[in-house]
Amino acid sequence: MTFAVRNGANWLEALRAARAASQPAALITVTRADGSAPREAGARMAVGPDWQADTIGGGTLEFRAIDAARELFAAGAARRATLRMPLGASLGQCCGGVVFLAIERIDADDDAWLAEAARASLDGEVRVRHVPLSDPSAKVTLTAPQGEAGQTRLEKEGDAEWLLDVLLPSTMQVVLFGAGHVGRALASLLGTLPCRVTWLDARDDMFPDAVADNIVTEVGDDGDVARQPAGAYWLILTHNHALDFDIVEKVLKRGDAAYVGLIGSKSKRANFTRRLEARGVGRERVAAELTCPIGIPGIAGKEPPVIAVSVVAELLQLHEARLRALRD
Questions:
Q1: 12: left (phi > 0), else alpha (psi -120 to 50), else beta?
Q2: 68: closest CA among 92, 84, 57?
Q3: What is the topology classification, in CATH, of domain 172-327?
Q4: CA 94 to CA 36: how far, in whole Å?
Q5: pLDDT at 96
Q6: Where is the XdhC Rossmann domain (predicted)?
Q7: Are strands 233-236 and 259-262 parallel, antiparallel or unpaired?
C-alpha cells in the first residue's frame, strides 16, 4: 500500500495518517536543549520509512535522529529510546549546545492520544502527554494541564523517568474574505504555513484553479460569518466596502475572534468606527478589537506580496503570544 504524507502536514497529522494507513512511524521530541541549539524543548518531528514531517532543526542532528527513529521500526526493537546529542565537532554543527531527544515508535496503543490531541488542537486546548521513558511497555497518556502547563520537560523520581510533553494548539484557524490581488497573495503564503484557512468570496471565478491542501475555498459573503470557528484570525479584504463593513460588524458582535483585520486606511477605520458605534459596537471595543490598517509597522510597500508578508508576520506574532499565554 502506497503512503504519502500530505504536503505541509505537521507531525500530528502525519502520525494520524500513517496510523490510518497501517504504516510504521515514529515521533521525535526535543526534551531538553542546553546552550545554543537549533530548536527548543517541545520541538517535534514525525518520521516514516521514507518520509518526515516537521523538523527538530536540520543538519546532522536531524539525520542521526531520523536514523535512530527508523531503527525502532525493526521487529523486536525497543518501543522508546533517548539520545543525548552534543552539537559540536562530532556532529559538524557549531551551535555548541546539547540536545536531548525522546524517540517513540507509534502503534495502535497511541491511537487514543493522537485522536484526543487532534481534537484539542482544533478546539484551542492545551494537553500534556505523559511518556514513561523508563518503562517502554507502559502506555502514553494525555491529560488536561493542572494549573500552569509550563514547557515540555523531563522529570525523574528515583529510577523512574518520564517526559511531560506540552501540546499547544499551534495550528491557526484563519478566515479570509476576499480573493482579489491581496487575498490571493495571502492565500499563497498561508498555504505554506501550519494553519487552516477558509477562503471566501462571493465571486466563484476569482479563486485559482488549485490551492494548498490546508485551504478550503467557498463561495460566500457576510452570511457565512456565523458558522466559522471560534478563536479564528479574520482577514477582511473584499472588493466592496459595504460588504467589508457588514462582515466586520458581524465578527465583532460574535465576540470570539483572536484577531479581526480589515484592509484599509486610517480614514476607512475612522469611518467604520463611527458607523459601528451607531450599530451598537462601542468605540472603545472597536479600538481594542479591530486592526486597520493591517500588517506590522515599518513595512510601507503596497504591492500585494509585500502586504501579505507583513500581515502574516503580524498573525504569527499574535499567535505566538497567544500560545505563550496558554502555556503559562
A1: alpha
A2: 84
A3: Rossmann fold (3.40.50)
A4: 9
A5: 64
A6: 174-315
A7: parallel
Could you tell me how far CA 196 lies from the centroid of its own chain?
8
Whether 272 and 283 have beta carbons less than 8 Å apart is answered as: no
What is the pLDDT at residue 146?
86
So what's the pLDDT on residue 150? 84
**Residue 253 host element (H or E):** helix 241-254
Residue in the block written with cell 472597536: 286
Residue 56 grid coordinates: 527538530
For residue 299, what pLDDT is reported?
92
Q: Which residues does residue 162 pair with via DSSP β-bridges, in sequence order?
A: 132, 155
Rg of the chain over Cα atoms, rounded to whole angstroms, equals 22
What residues contact 209, with CB distance under 8 A and at least 6 apart?
none
**pLDDT at res. 91:** 55
- Cell of residue 194, nine digits: 501550519
Residue with cell 480573493: 179
pLDDT at 88: 64
Counting residues of the chain whose pLDDT is more than 90, the rounded percentage is 68
The one-letter amino acid code at 159 reads D
Write out the DSSP string of 177-205.
E--SHHHHHHHHHHTTSSEEEEEEES-GG
Q: Where are the domains of the chain?
A: 11-167, 172-327
What digits encode the pLDDT tens for the residues 81-113?
999 988 765 555 555 688 999 999 999 999 999
- Report which of 70, 128, 74, 135 is spatially closest to residue 103, judged by C-alpha positions: 70
Low-confidence ranges of the chain (pLDDT < 50): 1
What does DSSP say about strands 80-86 and 98-106: parallel, antiparallel, or unpaired? antiparallel
Contact 212, 191 (CB under 8 A): yes
